[in-house]
Amino acid sequence: MSVYLIPVFVLSVFLFALLKKGKPYDSFVKGAKSAVPFVISIFPNLLCIFILSSVLEVSGISDFLTRILTPVFSFFGIPSEVCKLVLIKPFSG
Q1: Residue 34: how many other CB atoms lie within 10 Å
Q2: DSSP string spanning 28-40?
Q3: Are residues 28 and 14 in contact, defined by beta-carbon separation less than 8 angstroms?
Q4: Closest by alpha carbon to 70, among 56, 54, 51, 87?
Q5: Cα–Cα distance for residue pair 59/64, rounded to 1 Å
Q6: Quick check: 81 and 91 in contact, CB under 8 A?
Q7: pTM listed for this prediction
């Protein structure tokens, strides 16, 4: 069922645009053109987050901080599995 969700959604948007007498292809191209500057502007931030998370993981710092902070996180009811996400989140903001 979930395999068909995206194709059905795309087809329904296309059919809706045809019923409204719109031009779905032209609208798609226009939207794609406006998305390119956005992707270029956000790319350095994403690259920084990916590099930071990789460095923390490879160096072992994230495992060390997880071991140290697990009691603090468990006091607040945060599972230890989520500790790495909690450590990375401030840098992704």
Answers
A1: 9
A2: HHHHHHHHHHHHH
A3: no
A4: 87
A5: 10
A6: no
A7: 0.55
